[in-house]
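Lab notebook, bench 4. Still working through the backlog of constructs that have no structural model yet. Next entry is a single chain of 253 residues. Request: give me the structure tokens for it.
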Amino acid sequence: MRKQIAAANWKMNLTLQQGEQLIDELFKTSYSLNENRQVVFGTPFPYLTAINAKIAGKANVSVAAQNCSDKKSGAYTGETSVEMLKSIAIPYVILGHSERREYFNESNVQLAQKVDICFEYGLKPIFCCGESLSIREAGTQNSFVEEQLKESLFHLTTEQITGFVIAYEPIWAIGTGKTATSEQAQEMHAHIRKVLAAKYGNGVADTISILYGGSVKAANAKEIFGQPDVDGGLVGGASLIPAEFTVIINSLK
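Model written out:
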């Protein structure tokens, strides 16, 4: 069975002390993990080492950086390289989040470069894709997401793409209170898997975890995660509330 993942994206929220308190409170709750269920905390850069140390020894719990540079090193003030992340034992990197694409103009080509650097240094990308409201209303969301995948991922080998993690973000449902229906989520997740299968084969496509990233909450997680091609969630605001995030974790298959 594919890995089922509850990934918390803290974005630019919380102080270090608040983040540590959040994790302390979460660990006191009755969340359930096993070899098939994973929790990943996508924390701000300054907290990566501290949070990584805090979860040490916790089975199936990891930390992710929220971004990385597309350059290996050099005169890029304020950037963080994958080599730096590797040096502090960070296993995951969130790439191509809709906010990075919109506010920082990250392109599919640039994201392909970031994916390559992650593989070079042995880090695991969580690759985000998804459409805006205007694209959804035009009915061209399938071709739009397919282009994102092809331009950023289709140069990868079968070995690299096997077990990959993708997060589908309907941008119109992020932070708006709107949520795609479970049927809409399943439709796009199935389309993504079909696109991957056409390139790499059904066997490989079936190993790829596809997370849903659009206003996941305790109230809707069970229904959304219950869809056959939905393998968990990339969770924003609800991941900042221990009681909410516990329910979301326990909603994983």
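Notes after review: The first helix runs from residue 16 to 27. The mean pLDDT is 96. Flag for follow-up if needed.
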